Amino acid sequence: MTTTTATSPTVAPDHRPAVRRPSLLRLTGVELRKLVDTRAGLWLLITIGLLAAALVVVQLVWATDADQTFASFFLPTLLPVGLLLPVLGILSVTAEWSQRTALTTFALVPRRGRVIAAKLAAMVLAALASVLVSLGVAAAGTLVAGVTGGAGTWRFEGSLLLHAVVLQVASVLMGAGFGLLLLNTPLAIVGYLLLPTLWSILGGLIRHLEGPAGWLDTGRTMEPLFTPDVTAGQWARLGVSLLVWLVVPLVAGLVRTLRREVA
């Protein structure tokens, strides 16, 4: 009598490549693309560029020759960028919730902190790019001024460039903080534009608030950044105001975004 031994079939090993999570660099590239993917974001960037160019044209037409210099063209272009670019940062943060794409985003990248870090990195890069745009527009204005008989002076303090970077990066991160904290586009935009302005008005009207306003009013603490020389005391006041209007909303917004249920 012979017996047979049953053998189990051989299972081929699984050769499927392991799924790798996207790098922070790739996520940042995706977030940069999102800044211009929407019609609102694209037109906001176009508007910022047009306003910066319009300011230079106005100076070329009406400013005196002494005011048609590279530095004089550069500094005013920082104003519309510093005001409107944070709105783009708010849209980048709140769009995930207002357009109901948060479920898809956080399903593809479950660690929300990496997504938020990529968004913040994209905003910082956009702020740095805006400084380059301001430099380019100012250079074009200086060239035109030199050709048309204006001063066209290229003298420029290097500290002004550093101050411009601090101004634009701080502004866009401030907008991001309000966006993360409120997670609602209209409410975040109104809060970002209204609350610091309201505090500035109250600080000017109420005598007892004049002292705190010197430390907490970003309109006052950021003003020295438009000059080549910023004292240690002015840096201290800027740091305190950014602690209140940037760091606190940003940290609180991070906590809220990381804990919020995705519907």
What does this structure look like?
- The protein is mainly alpha-helical and 263 residues long.
- It has helices spanning 24-37, 39-62, 70-98, 102-108, 112-147, 158-182, 185-205, 210-216, 218-221, 232-259.
- It contains ten helices and no strands.
- Helix 1 crosses helix 5, helix 2 (39-62) runs parallel beside helix 5 (112-147) and helix 6 packs parallel to helix 10.
- The longest helix has 36 residues, at 112-147.
- It is globular.
- The mean pLDDT is 87.
In short:
The protein has about 260 residues and is mainly α.
Comma- or semicolon-separated keywords:
mainly alpha
Total number of β-strand segments? Answer: 0
- Our count of helices gives 10
The major sheet is characterized as: none
Described by the principal axes of the CA atoms, the overall outline is globular
Classify the helix fraction into a percent range: over 70%
The end-to-end span amounts to 68 Å
- Estimated radius of gyration: 25 Å
**Unreliable residue stretches:** none
Helices and strands, in order, run as: HHHHHHHHHH
The secondary structure category is mainly alpha
Portion of residues in beta strands equals: under 5%
Average of pLDDT: 87
Task: Furnish the topology, listing elements before pairings.
Blueprint: H1 24-37, H2 39-62, H3 70-98, H4 102-108, H5 112-147, H6 158-182, H7 185-205, H8 210-216, H9 218-221, H10 232-259
Helix pairs in contact: 1-2, 1-5, 2-3, 2-5, 3-5, 3-6, 3-7, 5-6, 6-7, 6-10, 7-8
